[in-house]
Design goal:
Blueprint: H1 3-25, H2 31-46, H3 48-74, H4 79-92, H5 97-123, H6 128-135, E1 152-153, E2 156-157, H7 162-169, H8 175-190, H9 209-231, H10 234-255, H11 260-274
Length: 275
């Protein structure tokens, strides 16, 4: 048996079913959708310290970026001296970039090998046989499901994809992948420093690979997330949007709007000019 099923997937399914049964007992409508939201919030809160640790490391790396650029310029063509000076800088600021990767890896393991497959199994319950598969991994008889759950959430079938629903609901269903992409874009931009225009890289000056990749991924990743959310079930989009919105709130609490301040200032200047 897959060890991730024992350690992550099955416990998360049990937790989700427990939330679902509790919401049913409280006569809350759209219990499955709200159970997914509740589970996502709980998981996001549980890994919040990992996220905070990763963000602190990212901020330190951003603060050291000018010093790293000076080291590259000073020891241009000498990779060994560059490495030595870089490690000395990290030691001076008590920074270990390798350790900063650990929180991100742990988050990825929980999400990719735990929450994501758990939701896939839950949203795949369309028949009595699939229901028995879920019941087989539940820990107590009190959690056992006696009937197929209603997958509808405010008129949307959580098990269907926007691509499936576009024929019946029309182009309005595209608001789901669009919103998913926008939320991801906002969170990605918030993770960037609030750079003033005068500090930006001048035209004609070659950017390093990291800076170039960061700028490209800012728009590429949200576009890919939006595309996947069009092909994946609405229930997975519900989980992803809840997860992202929670991340935006945590990011704002820790570091404010970050890179989004550039957009806010630009919008204000346009509004003032037009007003």
């Amino acid at each position: 048996m897959n060890p991730f099923n024992i350690i992550l997937v099955n416990p998360l399914i049990n937790l989700l079913v427990a939330f679902y049964q509790g919401l049913l007992w409280l006569h809350v409508p759209f219990a499955l959708g709200f159970a997914i939201i509740l589970l996502t919030v709980i998981i996001r809160a549980a890994i919040a310290p990992l996220f905070a640790s990763q963000q602190r490391m990212t901020k330190k790396m951003q603060e050291l970026a000018p010093h790293l650029s000076k080291i590259k310029e000073k020891h241009k063509g000498d990779a060994k001296k560059q490495q030595e000076a870089t490690m000395a800088l990290y030691k001076l600021h008590n920074l270990n970039p390798a350790a900063g990767c650990i929180p991100g890896v742990l988050q990825l393991v929980v999400l990719v090998f735990g929450l994501y497959p758990a939701l896939l199994k839950v949203l795949g319950v369309h028949t009595a046989q699939a229901l028995q598969t879920i019941n087989a991994v539940l820990y107590t008889p009190s959690l056992k499901l006696t009937h197929l759950w209603d997958p509808n959430f405010f008129g949307l079938n959580l098990a269907k994809t926007p691509a499936d629903l576009i024929g019946t609901l029309g182009w309005v269903i595209l608001l789901i992948p669009v919103a998913t992409g926008v939320f991801q874009l906002v969170q990605s931009k918030m993770m960037m420093p609030a750079v003033e225009p005068k500090k930006e890289v001048k035209k004609g000056k070659q950017e390093d690979f990291a800076t170039s990749f960061q700028k490209q991924s800012l728009y590429l990743i949200p576009f890919m997330v939006a595309f996947f959310s069009f092909r994946f079930s609405v229930g997975l989009s519900l989980y992803w949007n809840t997860f992202t919105l929670f991340g935006i709130l945590q990011q704002y609490k820790m570091h404010g709007w970050g890179g989004v301040e550039q957009w806010i200032k630009f919008a204000k200047s346009k509004y003032t000019k037009n007003g």
